[in-house]
């Protein structure tokens, strides 16, 4: 009985607190929240589409109550600018759930760190050390090696009889490039051999990544209603075991690198070497180094492969655009050599195709949520301290007020008007903007451009037998990152001589 009374009193206190909040502040409009759960059960699985639909009814800034946590979503360029530029600093914290809290050791990494001295220091390491043009250039051979390996396996597979009709599943090839590229760049390791077989350490790495996703997904409703957490204790043991397993693997790799550095002259360009040699200069703890390495993996792996898959789907849907890119290749690069990243600056139409893909299919359509560290006003509404703020960059990039025929895939729009996509133009924000803008933006752009250009220079892509281009499923999977709901399949027909389809392995 007494438990019942305590619970009833707690519920009453929370409901009245929420009510007072709503009366005290002029909050943005939105769907009517239910007691305790708020709008949690009204949100459709593909969140950014649901928020977009609500914005059509309530306007470009809306309140969504997820349990007792206020989430504000903005959906036009003007409000995005207020969030990411004018009130940038007050909105630069992160919301951590129990899983991200545990894995980031209370924000000791970069992605989940709140804005403050630790964040500023680690961000400086990224800007001045990890993502400099010099380092990106020195890691170029890794990217080029991986895309040529992809071309070789597409070439080997495309002539198998079943693949001439059913087509190849592009995600498999793009996923391998992204996996090998990011593990080599972060850990200096290619876990996969030339036959595509993953070694023991690589299998452990993959198991850790998928276990992390599983643990993140296992969180209960109490995640959104902090005062209910005592009733749903998180599986602390599982979190701790996962953390220990991740640290063990990362420490083993770090030790291998330390030994290798002692036995050779100077450090290599991989992030693990860079961070270990910069440890003292920037006073980085081991938790921060491990956290940063895993940030790069989680933020950099899926995003590039997802964008390239969407972009290829658009190419298969639009033979006109595909042909135009290939004509540009033939004019600039020719048919008797493999292209390189150095060719990109002479391929303006290709760059427009990449940009148009990022516009229509940003892989993180709601970016990562920001959290307010002070009361702030956006669009004339109050955003109380502690609210989460999301920019629906997917909706912003489809806003007919700033884009002509926004739903049409038309790369030429960027030949007519040059629009920046790295945070300077608030109509196009696949990487966010402001102090938390993606530090890996240029790397991501290079990787997506590289994957697309090699696939399109080497092969003509057509839909599987019996499927019309307009029948390709262009709907999205739910999730923080937006995969295509149905992996795209396509038939590849080589257009360059076969001797240009061989991988030239590069050990780095
Ligand atoms: C297609 C490629 C990519 C896209 C579209 C993308 C997009 C984004 C977005 C939208 C954010 C959140 C910005 C914000 O909170 O305002 C972000 C953050 C981040 N990204 Fe990327 N990203 C990509 C590739 C990469 C790569 C390749 C890396 C590193 C190897 C990377 C590392 C990070 C990190 C560390 C953060 C957290 C920054 C912070 O909290 O200060 N990203 N990214």
Automatic annotation (TrEMBL):
Cofactor(s) the record lists: heme
For this UniProt record, the keywords arranged alphabetically read as follows: Heme, Iron, Membrane, Metal-binding, Monooxygenase, Oxidoreductase, Transmembrane, Transmembrane helix
Example of a GO cellular component annotation carried by this entry:
endoplasmic reticulum
Question: What Gene Ontology molecular function terms does this protein carry?
Answer: heme binding; identical protein binding; iron ion binding; oxidoreductase activity, acting on paired donors, with incorporation or reduction of molecular oxygen; p-coumarate 3-hydroxylase activity
Q: Where in the cell is it found?
A: Membrane
> Which PROSITE patterns would you find in this protein's record?
CYTOCHROME_P450
Q: Does the keyword Iron apply?
A: yes
Biological processes, Gene Ontology terms: coumarin biosynthetic process; flavonoid biosynthetic process; lignin biosynthetic process
Q: Mind telling me which InterPro entries this protein's record contains? A: Cyt_P450, Cyt_P450_CS, Cyt_P450_E_grp-I, Cyt_P450_sf
Task: Tell me where on the tree of life, at the top rank, the source sits.
Answer: Eukaryota
Q: Which residues bind heme?
A: 438
Which SUPFAM superfamilies does this one have?
Cytochrome P450
Membrane topology recorded in Swiss-Prot or TrEMBL: Single-pass membrane protein
What is stated as this protein's family in its record? Belongs to the cytochrome P450 family.
| Identification of the protein by name | Cytochrome P450 98A3
What organism does this protein naturally occur in? Eutrema salsugineum (Saltwater cress)
């Amino acid at each position: 009985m007494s438990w019942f009374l305590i619970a009833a009193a707690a519920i009453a206190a929370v409901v009245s607190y929420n009510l007072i909040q709503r009366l005290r502040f002029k909050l943005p409009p939105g769907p009517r929240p239910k007691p305790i759960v708020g709008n949690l059960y009204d949100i459709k699985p593909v969140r950014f589409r649901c928020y977009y639909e609500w914005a059509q009814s309530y306007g470009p800034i809306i309140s969504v109550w997820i349990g007792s946590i206020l989430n504000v979503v903005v959906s036009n360029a003007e409000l995005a600018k207020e969030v990411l530029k004018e009130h940038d600093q007050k909105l630069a914290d992160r919301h951590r759930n129990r899983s991200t809290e545990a894995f980031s050791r209370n924000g000791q990494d970069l992605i989940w760190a709140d804005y403050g001295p630790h964040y500023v220091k680690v961000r400086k390491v990224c800007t001045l050390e990890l993502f400099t043009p010099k380092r990106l250039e020195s890691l170029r051979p890794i990217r080029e090696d991986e895309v040529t390996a992809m071309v070789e396996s597409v070439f080997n597979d495309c002539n198998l009889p079943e693949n001439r009709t059913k087509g190849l599943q592009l995600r498999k090839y793009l996923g391998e490039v992204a996996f090998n590229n990011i593990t080599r760049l972060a850990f200096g390791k290619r876990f996969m051999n030339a036959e595509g077989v993953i070694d023991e350490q690589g299998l452990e790495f993959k198991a850790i990544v998928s276990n992390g996703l599983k643990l993140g997904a296992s969180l209960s409703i109490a995640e959104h209603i902090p005062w209910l957490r005592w009733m749903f204790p998180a599986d602390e043991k599982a979190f701790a075991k996962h953390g220990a397993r991740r640290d063990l693997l990362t420490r083993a790799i770090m030790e291998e690198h330390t030994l290798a550095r002692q036995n050779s002259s100077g450090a290599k360009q991989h992030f693990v070497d860079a961070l270990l040699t910069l440890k003292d200069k920037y006073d980085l703890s081991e938790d921060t180094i491990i956290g940063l390495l895993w940030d790069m993996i989680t933020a950099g792996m899926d995003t590039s492969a997802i964008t390239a898959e969407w972009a290829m789907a658009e190419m298969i849907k639009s033979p006109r655009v595909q042909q135009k890119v290939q004509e540009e290749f033939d004019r600039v690069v020719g048919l008797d050599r493999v292209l390189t990243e150095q060719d990109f600056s002479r391929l303006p139409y290709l760059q427009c195709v990449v940009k148009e893909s990022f516009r229509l299919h940003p892989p993180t359509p709601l970016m990562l949520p920001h959290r307010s560290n002070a009361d702030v006003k956006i669009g004339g509404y109050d955003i109380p301290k502690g609210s989460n703020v999301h920019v629906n960059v997917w909706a912003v990039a489809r806003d007919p007020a700033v884009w002509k025929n926004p739903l049409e895939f038309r790369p030429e729009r960027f030949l007519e008007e040059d629009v920046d996509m790295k945070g300077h133009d608030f109509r196009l924000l696949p990487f966010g903007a402001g102090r938390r803008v993606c530090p890996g933006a240029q790397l991501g752009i290079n990787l997506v451009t590289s994957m697309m250009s090699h696939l399109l220079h080497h092969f003509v892509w057509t839909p599987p037998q019996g499927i019309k281009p307009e029948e390709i499923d262009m709907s999205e999977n739910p999730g923080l990152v937006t995969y295509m709901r149905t992996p795209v399949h396509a038939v590849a027909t080589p257009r360059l001589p076969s001797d240009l389809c061989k991988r030239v392995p590069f050990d780095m």
